[in-house]
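re: that chain from earlier
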Amino acid sequence: MTETIEEQRLEAAWQTMPQVLSRFEPLVNNLRLELQLTEHSQDLAPRLRQHGEQLWQQAVYQASTTPDYDDRALYWARLMMTQALGQWCQQQQACTHLPLLLEALELSSRGQLSIRFSKDSDVRILLTGFDPFLLDRNLNQSNPSGVTALMLDGWVFQQDGQQIEVQSAMIPVRFVDFDQGMIEQLLSPPLQQQSIDMLLTVSMGREHFDLEHFPGRRRSAEAPDNLNVLTGGNANNPVLPLLDGAPLAGPEFVAYSLPYQAMMQAEGRFQINDNRTVTSLERGEFAAQSLAELADQTAVQGGGGGYLSNEISYRSILLRDRYNPELPVGHIHTPRIAAFEPDTTAAIVEQIKAMIRLAVASTPVIAEPDNGK
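^ sequence. v structure.
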């Protein structure tokens, strides 16, 4: 098996930031040792889940106990693990099992298999962040949304007599994962079971915070993903994402349902915008005031653009509309950073925490302790 584009960046990353890549190297070496002692792949998936979950939990623990506002070590350690697994698979000639083995390692190391809320929590919030991206531009790029996910995973606070808990997961910046249904697999169970009270998707965006009011259905961005795959679309020809081999079905635009007016009052370094700007084939760029105004438009860009930030918001709201229409769901675009800016990222994380507190206070959600969640 050949290395992925992401894994091929490891050598340069070691030369650029060895202190980052060495942070979780003992965990990577534990996996390598496990693979050396493994002859068959049949029983390997559960052990890979354990290694992946250990990596995720260690990254969360370090983010909370020694906060350096850095998500990069988790990203690069995961790639070292997938690289080691691919090499072992090739040596063992067991590559037919590799997709399932990679899935076990990927999902667990992203926190996607360990979303467990306490029975004592009254309000349960699920938050997602993204990997670093555009790494061919800045190999040492960090992503404030990933830092937010790490630092807020397991965050519990008391407010208005309620216990509020946040659980987080990390999302890859890869079109193929979206096309294969990763977002639906992650979010459908809690939405269908109504086991969460709020869902926030977060990514890095523009100069200030943008609360993306109207996500769009199509891809049009010209930026590559982390595998250097392009959307295939542009401003004149936006393309539909896939879900399980078929075009993603749904309206051209959907609507944010978090209490944005309250969240915009969160104090901090950055302005918080209610971003209603969209682009359609029929009208070009304009600020939409309602979904009704968008009913006959063809999406080029939603509020979140034409890339995966917009798409995770669209897919999550589409699921919300299907399974739990009253649930507060929406996307937060953070201010962008250049490569690694821990002070700026710290300010971003604190302002998101303030937004969450205000969102909870402004949402008529009172979770009963015995409601079976």
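The chain has two domains: 5-109, 123-361.
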